[in-house]
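Work Package 4 report. The design task specified in the project plan requires that, given a folded chain encoded as structure tokens, an amino acid be chosen for each position. We show below one input record used in the internal validation round.
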């Protein structure tokens, strides 16, 4: 087992990993930028190393600084969390070259699944249902236009290196295609340094349902059931739940088997998610694989009583998985509480938190790194906390979330708490009748 793990991340996920390390008797090392000097992950780690100035490009994305921090602290493993370098094949390879275990996917796996066109071809070869579209990268717009005409509109233009909704455009008619294609390429180039594009048929009324998987060094994998992530804004998830209200036993069995097949086909090692789009007829199509821990992993932990971070560490140390596939016995919902103004187009609102009172009680979990007086920096993701409720039924979990949101008091900055309060009262959400298009017709109501 590892003696010391460096967490190459910040905020709540860094604190989350530190807690599991402490429980496992493993020393932890926090890294931080100058902007995060007062963050809780810095305070609770056994050691902390400053790796650069506020800009993530000069700190959390600076591979040389992170490797240097690991070497001077004699860390024998690095946990990348999510975001930043968690799906960076080059960083995974550098860790391997420095004899530091990367608690995540190997460079080969990341290259195979991180590039969307490559992942699509791989899954097609594995026999996983994929969305109709181009066979790999399209070299010219003329190729894309011809394929779109053959498939029929609407289509989705996607950057092969895309993520977080960047480099994606829905095209509903031929007349708009060129402008949207160029915009997607330009955005992809600016965001990822790669403007390679491919094309897919746009699935109407889709649900975004992902299957959590764990694979070990023997090539075996198991699944830990599904999460419904369909409530999104600009392809960024706002809330998630498990089990999905759209799921049936037969569909879970089929999707679970497909996810395991996907993981075992590439001999995947570690925690990951196989993401699917599911149409209104419950046909499912492979979308992508995230080769890291997900933001929303706590809801899975809650419904199956399972520490995913611990399992990541064990698998990385060579411990085989149990091989058991899990079915949720409870219901859990996660609301992402961000420092954003939902009444002003979700504009980011960094600043000082003057009051922070977290809700409590049975079935309430809060993953956060903030406190009274904490200053939310403007340089990173605006997440303040993840509020998770767990109950016997979906209705009870929603009622618990309503109560918890009322108790959650954050002053000094605007937050998305009012949005979640309105979401928990929305008739379509209450009945589970929602798709990834939900937010297109959602309007915030004035506060009473």
């Amino acid at each position: 087992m590892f003696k010391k793990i460096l967490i190459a991340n910040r905020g709540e996920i860094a604190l989350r990993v530190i807690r599991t390390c402490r429980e496992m008797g493993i020393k932890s090392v926090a890294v931080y930028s100058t902007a995060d000097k007062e963050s809780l992950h810095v305070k609770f780690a056994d050691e902390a190393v400053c790796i650069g100035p506020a800009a993530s490009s000069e700190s959390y994305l600076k591979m040389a600084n992170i490797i240097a921090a690991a070497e001077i602290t004699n860390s024998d493993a690095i946990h990348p969390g999510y975001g930043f370098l968690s799906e960076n094949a080059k960083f995974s390879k550098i860790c391997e070259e420095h004899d530091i275990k990367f608690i995540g996917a190997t460079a080969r796996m990341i290259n195979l699944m991180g590039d969307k066109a490559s992942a699509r071809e791989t899954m097609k070869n594995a026999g996983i249902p994929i969305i109709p579209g181009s066979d790999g990268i399209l070299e010219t717009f003329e190729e894309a236009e011809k394929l779109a005409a053959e498939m029929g509109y609407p289509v989705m233009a996607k950057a092969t290196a895309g993520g977080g909704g960047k480099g994606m455009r829905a095209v509903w008619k031929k007349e708009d295609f060129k402008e949207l294609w160029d915009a997607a390429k330009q955005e992809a180039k600016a965001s990822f340094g790669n403007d390679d594009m491919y094309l897919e048929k746009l699935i109407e009324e889709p649900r975004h349902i992902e299957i959590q998987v764990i694979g070990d060094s023997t090539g075996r994998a198991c699944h830990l059931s599904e999460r419904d992530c369909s409530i999104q804004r600009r392809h960024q998830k706002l809330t998630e739940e498990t089990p999905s209200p759209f799921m049936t036993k037969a569909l879970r069995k089929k999707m679970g088997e497909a996810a395991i097949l996907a993981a075992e086909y590439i001999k995947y090692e570690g925690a990951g998610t196989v993401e699917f789009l599911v149409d209104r007829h419950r046909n499912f199509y492979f979308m992508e694989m995230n080769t890291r821990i997900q933001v929303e992993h706590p809801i899975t932990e809650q419904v199956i009583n399972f520490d995913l971070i611990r399992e990541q560490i064990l698998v990385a140390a060579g411990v085989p998985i149990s091989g058991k596939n899990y079915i949720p016995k409870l219901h859990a919902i996660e609301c992402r509480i961000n420092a954003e103004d939902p009444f002003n187009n979700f504009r980011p609102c960094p600043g000082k938190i003057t009051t922070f009172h977290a809700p409590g009680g049975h079935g309430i979990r809060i993953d956060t790194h903030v406190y009274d007086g904490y200053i939310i920096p403007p340089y990173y993701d605006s997440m303040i906390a993840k509020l998770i409720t767990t109950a016997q039924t979906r209705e009870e979990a929603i009622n618990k979330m309503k109560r918890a949101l009322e108790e959650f008091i954050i002053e000094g900055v605007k937050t998305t708490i009012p949005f979640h309060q309105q979401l928990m009262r929305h008739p379509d959400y209450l009945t589970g009748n929602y798709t990834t298009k939900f937010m297109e017709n959602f309007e915030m109501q004035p506060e009473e």
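The chain is about 35% helix and 25% strand. Validation will be extended to a larger panel in the next phase.
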